[in-house]
Specification:
The structure is a homodimer of 198-residue chains. Chain A is an all-alpha fold. Chain A has a single domain, classed as Tetracycline Repressor, domain 2. Chain A has 9 helices and no strands. Chain A has helices spanning 8-23, 30-37, 44-47, 51-77, 80-97, 105-112, 118-140, 146-170, 174-190. In chain A, helix 1 (8-23) crosses helix 4. The first copy, chain A, is elongated, with a radius of gyration of 18 Å. The first copy, chain A, binds a DNA duplex (18 and 18 nucleotides) through helix 3.
DNA sequence: GTCTATACGAAGATAGAC
DNA sequence: GTCTATCTTCGTATAGAC
């Protein structure tokens, strides 16, 4: 009935996420987002009165939420190894399908954010924190003490993000696969088997 | 004697490295490099006829060489754990002394390089490769099979770089310390003791 | 090696019409 | 919600004098 909820805003956000991944934060200009999304020029500041900073901040929050959702799904299964493997698989797919041109939007913002609005750094930190928390819960659920679980979770996020960067630079999945194998082995030796298999 | 070798070029390069670390690749503009280094405007294209891309490429190569030098020093001692600890310590110092504003110049270029000259990606990949090679040598020197040594080396580089990014976002050294602790434990359990202690 | 001047484009943001 | 100017600033690059 009546006015369908506008998807212009939605498309701009999705374009911002994609451009952040491939070209970085500073290169994700309003012009480019408009061109990529096909959204009309004149409505940008209508949807994002806070300007470019607001768009980027919301794009980062969206990625943070999306990936956290994946991890929470894995948490429901109670199998930490599966959750971690899914985390690696997600980034691997992104790399391969983009010809090793696309990385992580959150990283892009974290690396380029010193000149921009301070809430951007906070937004990136919040995304990393969500992923770390989700992984820590996963690990703690399999018998690891809380402190170690957190340490291992932060370590896992760092390894994935660092490996994705290396993969882009050398246009190969080898660094991510190396990290996945090492983390997998480490977790196998550290965690006790999931409850369902005892 | 006579004409002292000009240090203008040198200062521009050092400024580029510093700006890449703190503000990213795109934000490392010629204007900013000149302002930071105090170098005269008119001589930029004299020293870097290839323009901004040449400057950035050389800056990345310089960082790559510098860090590789540190790792090679550690390799001379034959103690892999010491080498890895020095690697972590280097980045920790950079983070702390900058108030968690400075990261890795090579990462900045790797993340933002899709729009710029293709040799920039290659330059970043070369830096990562040098570090990975140096660490792999270190690990292989302590009894690890070559393939595993390489895998572990790439993993270590990825963990450090990813952790540095997280540290910047959350303005804390916790992620790097977590990664250092996990890598340290992993290596202790994986490598045999250095030759000197047998 | 260094200086000034300048051309040119891209980017963020705002104003006012529709 | 969308459109068309328009302002301003910044960035790369070149030309030509000194």
């Amino acid at each position: 009935m009546g006015a369908r909820k506008s998807d212009t805003r939605e498309r701009m956000l999705e374009s911002a996420v994609a451009l952040l991944r491939e070209h970085g934060a500073r290169a994700t200009s309003i012009d480019r987002v408009l061109a990529h999304s096909g959204a009309p020029r004149g409505s940008f500041y209508h949807h994002f009165p806070g300007g470019r900073a607001q768009l980027v901040e919301e794009a980062v929050a969206r990625v943070g939420g999306f990936v956290a959702g994946l991890l929470d799904e894995a948490a429901a299964s109670g199998d930490a190894l599966r959750g971690v493997d899914a985390f690696f698989a997600l980034w691997r797919e992104r790399l391969v399908e983009s010809g090793f041109r696309a990385g992580c939007s959150v990283v892009a913002v974290a690396v380029e954010t010193n000149d921009e609005a301070p809430q951007l750094a906070r937004s990136a930190a919040a995304a990393f924190a969500r992923w770390t928390d989700a992984l820590a819960d996963l690990f703690a659920g399999q018998g690891l003490p809380a402190a170690r679980a957190r340490r291992l979770a932060a370590f896992t996020v760092a390894a994935v993000e660092g490996a994705v960067i290396m993969c882009r630079a050398e246009r190969s999945a080898a660094p991510l696969d190396a990290a996945a194998a090492e983390i997998h082995d480490l977790l196998s030796n550290t965690l006790r088997p999931p409850r369902s298999t005892i």
